[in-house]
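User: My collaborator sent over this chain with a note saying "see what the structure looks like." That's all I know about it. Can you take a look?
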Amino acid sequence: MKPLLPICCTIALLSFAGCIQSIAVSSVGGIIEDGFEALTEEQDLEFAAQALPSNLKLLEVMLKNKPDDARLLRLLAEGYNSYALGFVEDTDPARAKVFYRRATDYALRLVRQDEELSKAFDGSVDELKAELAKRGKEAVPGIFWAAFGLGSYLNLSLSDPDAIATLPKTEVMMNFVATADSAFYYAGADVFLGTLYGSRARMLGGDPELSRQHFERALRINDGKFLMTHVYFARSYAVQTLNETLFDELLTTVDQTSLDVLPKFRLGNAIAKRKARLLQIKRADLF
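Assistant: Without extra context I'll predict from the sequence alone. Here is the result:
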């Protein structure tokens, strides 16, 4: 019976090592999450652009050890979407599409942890809408970041039939977020929907009035402190309706608002200011 002792000890040690590894991943994951919060408070765009990729790769390494960890999947979905939007799409759209797809994959892995929701996502638009109606705030992060990634990829792939085919489900997903937790990510769902309805002509499914309603609702919810709201209000609704006065007012607000108006989101607002400047440069081509 003596040979069993080393075997038992080995099994025990391996189990202990696995337990320690899980604890370590959970602990470091908490630190990384705190680090992400600190990063969103950063106002130096160059510093943030250099810091974010290494943090994302560290999260991916950690995810290898805990592939179903909801916190890691959420952070990666948010991180890659944010990196693509803030630091890539304005200069390299093709590269941004790669990151948006990666963000979407992580978000959908989170969504698919709900078996019934996973089945509904693979079904019809009506099936997805019906299943989402049974969900509450707990489902919002995964749904929001999946829809954000899908929509952002589509925005850069308007000649891709496969990307266009995702639009109905993306719209349903964001409407769910706007209903279930309207304040999530500073009313991000309303900003997204306002952009969606305001970027297209009526004959292509656009709805300027509905767009305006979503943007105004977002501004009420985030008190105008989430500057991306003004940027996308100008970029979509104001341009589509040829409202130059509103366009200028919105971008002037972005330019004149202090980054300290929302200390926890200085980075996002700094990105919004840069996007506003790019829009001003293109003004003559937009009107």
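A starting point for your reply to your collaborator: Confidence is low (pLDDT under 50) at residues 4-27.
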